[in-house]
Each structure stands twice: as C-alpha cells, then as structure tokens.
Amino acid sequence: MGTNFIPDDLDATKWNNLEPYVSSLLERELNCTSCLESLIRDSSSLAEHISEAGALLYIGMTCDTESDEKKADFLDFSSNVRPKLSEFSDSLNRKIAEHPDVGNLPERYDLMIRAMKTDIEIFRKENIPLGVRQTELVTEAQAINGAMTVEFDGQEQTMPQMRAYMESNNREERGAAWTAVTERRLEDSERLSEIFDELVEIRHQIATNAGFDSFTDYMFCAMHRFDYSVEDCIEFHDSVESVCMPILREINKNRIDALGLGKLSPWDVNEKTGAGPDIHGRAPLKPFETVGEMVSKLSEMFHEMSDDLGGKFDKLVEMDTLDLDTRKGKAPGGYQYYLEKSGVPFIFMNAAGLQGDLETMIHEAGHAFHSLYCGHLELIHDRDYPIEFAEVASMSMELLTQPGWNKFYDDEQANRARRTHLEGVVFLLPWIATIDSFQHWIYSNPGHSREERAQVWLSIRDRFGSDMDWAGHSDFRELSWQQQGHLFGVPFYYIEYGIAQLGSLQLWKTHISDPDKALEDYAKAMTLGNTKSLPELFSAAGLKLGFDEGHFSSLLEEVDSALERLPA
Fold first, then answer.
1. pLDDT at residue 2 above 60?
2. Exposure string for 502-526, b = 16+ CB within 10 A, e = fewer
3. Which of 32, 330, 427, 530 is most solvent-facing, going by the fewest CB within 10 Å?
C-alpha cells in the first residue's frame, strides 16, 4: 500500500520526522491534473504511516492503562503531533480542493473532495488546543474506568469479570454483584461528572468557534453525515418507541412471570443487552473456557460458512494481533483497529467466557473482515468506510453466524443463545435511542446543570427503558449514563449502531432464505470501502436506508416471529 514517497521504517510518532514530508507536499508545484493525483497518492501514503503510528499508541495505552509510559507516549502524540497535523491537513485540503484542476479529476475523487471541502469549512486554528484538552480528558476517563475493580467472591474482579455474576440464577448473588459494581462506579462518579462537564463546555466552544449554533450541527458536518439529518434521528427515536418498546415490554413481562417477580430489579436484566439469568433456572451459557478454544471453534465455524471468511479469520490469527483476555488495567470494551500501513486488523476485547463475549468477538471479526475486503483500495480515504456501514459489517456477522453457534453448544443451548441474541437486538435499539436522544439534548442545552441533566436522563430512561424497581439505587440511576464510554470519547457516535442494525436485519432476512446470496451481497458491498455514498453502499448489499415506522415494523416483526419459533 502507499507509494515510495515515504520510507517503510519512518517513525511517524515524532513531528521532526514528519515535517520534511509535510513541507514537501505543501510546497509541491502542481501544473497538471496528474500532478494533483500524485499529490493525493503521496499524502495518502503519509496518512497511512501517521494513522498506524497513532493506532499503535492507542492500542498500547488501552491494553495497559496503568502504564505511565504508554499513557505519556499517547498523550505526547496527541498534544505535540496531532495539533500540527490538523493545521497541515487543512493546508493540504485547501491546496487540493481549491486547485483550478480539481474539477478535472476523475469521478472516483468526488466523495473525497466533498469531505475535504466540508473539513475546510469547519476548520478553525483556535480549536486545535481545545481538541488536545478533549483528548486529555477522554484519556483520563478511560484510565478511571480501566482501573475499576471490586473485591467479590473472595478475589479482585475486573468489571468485565463481574458480568458473569449478573447471569447467576441466585438472585441474592446477582443483587450483591450489581451493588458491588455500582458502588464502585459511584466512587469515581464525581470526577467523571467533572470531566463530562468540561467536555460539554469544550465541545460547545469548538462549535461556536466554527460558526455553528450547536455542537450537534457541527458534528453532523465533522462526521460527514451527508445522507441523513437530525430530523431522521428524531424519526428513528419515535420508530423505536412505537415498534420496539411493545416487544421489549412483552419480553420483560415473560421474564417477570417466569421468575415469579412482582417487578424487575436492575440486576434481573441488563437494559442495554437484555442479558440476565435464565428464566428456567438453567446454568448461564458458557460458550468457551479459554480464548484459545473460542478462536479455534470460530475458525471452524467461519470455514463452514465460506472458504473466504474462514481464510480471512485464520489470517487474523496468523497475524497475531488479537488481545482478547480480560485483565486488571486493561481498558473496558472491545474494538477493531485497522493498521493502515501494514494492512493488519487488530482486535481488542475483554473475554470472560460469556455468550456476550462470543458475540463481541464475532462483531469485531466482522469489522476486521470489512477492513480486509477493502484493503486492496489504493487510497486511505477509499478504505475509510462510513461508520454507519462499518457497523453493518459487524452486526450482520453476529446474525449470519447464528446457525453456526452449535460449534459452541448443544442444540438446546444454541437455541437459548440465538434467543438471547435476538432479544438483545430488541433491547439494543431502545438503548441506542436513549443514548442518541440524550446526546441531542446535552449539546442543544450546553449550559445545563447537573440536576437538569439527571432529570432529562431519567425521563429518556422512562421513555425507552424497562420498568424497574430502583428503590435504594436512585443515585446510580441518575448517573448510569457514565457507563457508556461513547458519551465521553466519541460524541454522537451511537446512532450508527441503530442505522446499521436495521441494515443487518435486512441482510439476516436474506440469509434465512438464501445464505449464499447474503454472503455474496455482504462481500460485494464491503469491498467498496468508502468509494460510494452511504445509500449506495446499503443498496450494493441489497439494503434500504430508512428510519420510518413501516421500515422498523417489517424488520422487528421478523425478529418477533423468530423469537416465537425459538423455545423459551
């Protein structure tokens, strides 16, 4: 990948090493259209090196949040390199987008130039130090969450390890585990609230500096949301309320009846995922004992789906870029990060042997497949697929692999896992609406008080959440938004999961009747990377991009029917 413009061994973590190449690009004479194309190719090569350098620093820090050295290296890059890169990117964008020959470039550059022009419009030099401060605060929040452990069941447990106790059939144990986790979270809640307060202030200032009335409007431009609007997001929220909530309430009613409860407590069901104890008192699903076992069985499963997917998964293993076990000091969550220069996907997660861990690994493998499918594209921009479609790659893979889960379970357990996952879809969409709605309010009301924030959060929870008995835990309920890392680290990144879930459900419907066609459509669309608009990418996979109630209903009815067919 890339050109000969940059040596392979360039250390792109230091500005002194980058500056000669930056200067060369900015000073280059452009006398023809082909000269312009050459500049684009060489700048893409430089971007690959920089992207990978930043990725490796981020990976190092999240794998070991307790390492002062790794944190310092990441923050040094964020504070001393990225600000200069922001200025360079703006200058380069102007050099390309404002060049007289830009209109003569082939059509393949149209999406890139559109993005460049948008970035030029919103760039402000005074926002650079604000961005640095934002990164510092987000890094601190990650470190706080990564350091959280509790003493439980006679030993120190990480937060991911505590999830296993939430599926226990012993309600007393579940309640004790949930309480231990929430009490630990509350210990750091004041500092996390302070961080978030400052982030909201910074983000509003960034938007104001760029000439926007709100951070919401700024981010829709910054995230290149060309194909849907704030109004579409509101329609999404309304559709979730009318279509998903009745199904969710029915699932919860069945849970209450089966468990013999008057009302659910927060430790009886996970509001985000729908996970909880088995309603028939069966032992929690445990798809694997070790990460090695999970990886081995996934390889078999993907090979049975297709030689293509099997080969791609084996490639991930061979590249040795998987960090899957949970441990103290490791940041929470999971992600896939594509190393642009090397062409290698890195997968990070915190496996504790649960069904949710299996789904997470399959999800991140979907992202990795996407990266490998479009890795042949020449320019980094062409490989930088929109998030809304990136999540189709991952979320559809969760659904398409369901028939293969017998690799991990007997028939009864596999059906339980499928049911749990489909119920999880029903729970996730309202949670997405919760987080997205909350973000829209936060940044439309940047001067809000903490009390106002708590009241709005609770009202949104009432709209999209499960009816629960929170007696004695109201303090945590008001602050439960702090568990969602996206609110801190990647503002407005969440509706993408909802848009993608609707896409993945459509691909799943195709897979039920014609598995080969679904996989062909998947591969064809993923190969396109970022070379087509979002509606065109959806269309390439045989999918519709929509937010309306009718669209929701057609997909959620299929989920509801599948749940009816599966044994409880």
1. no
2. bbbbbbbbbbeeeeeebbbbbbebb
3. 32
- Cα separation, 337 vs 52, in Å, equals 9
- Per domain, the residue ranges of the chain are 15-123
CA distances to 355, 396, 478, 538, 539 from 313, in Å: 19, 16, 42, 24, 26
Whose structure tokens read 């893409």? Answer: 44
Encoded tokens for 194: 């302070």
Contact 86, 128 (CB under 8 A): yes
In single-letter form, the type of residue at position 317 comes to V
Q: pTM of the prediction?
A: 0.91
| Euclidean distance between CA atoms 508 and 515, whole angstroms | 9
- Contact between 149 and 158 under an 8 Å Cβ cutoff? The reply is yes
Mean pLDDT along residues 548-553 = 97
* First and final C-alpha spacing in the chain: 50
Give the model confidence (pLDDT) of 239-252 as tens digits: 999 999 999 999 99
Mean pLDDT of 283-300: 95
For residue 158, list its beta bridge partners: 149
Q: What does DSSP assign to residue 284? A: P
φ/ψ of residue 565, rounded to 5 = -75, -30
The encoded tokens of residue 520 equal 């062909």
CB 89 within 8 A of CB 119: yes
Parallel, antiparallel, or unpaired: how do β-strands 322-325 and 344-351 relate?
Answer: parallel
Q: At what angle do helices 411-444 and 450-464 cross, to 10 degrees?
A: 140
Residue 3 reports pLDDT greater than 70:
no
Q: Which of 491, 489, 498 is nearest to 464 (CA)?
A: 498
Q: What are phi and psi for residue 156, nearest 5 degrees?
A: -75, 130
Q: Residue 348 CA to chain centroid, in angstroms?
A: 12
**Backbone phi and psi for residue 338, each to the nearest 5 degrees, phi listed first:** -85, 125
Per-residue confidence band for 160, with pLDDT thresholds at 50, 70 and 90? confident
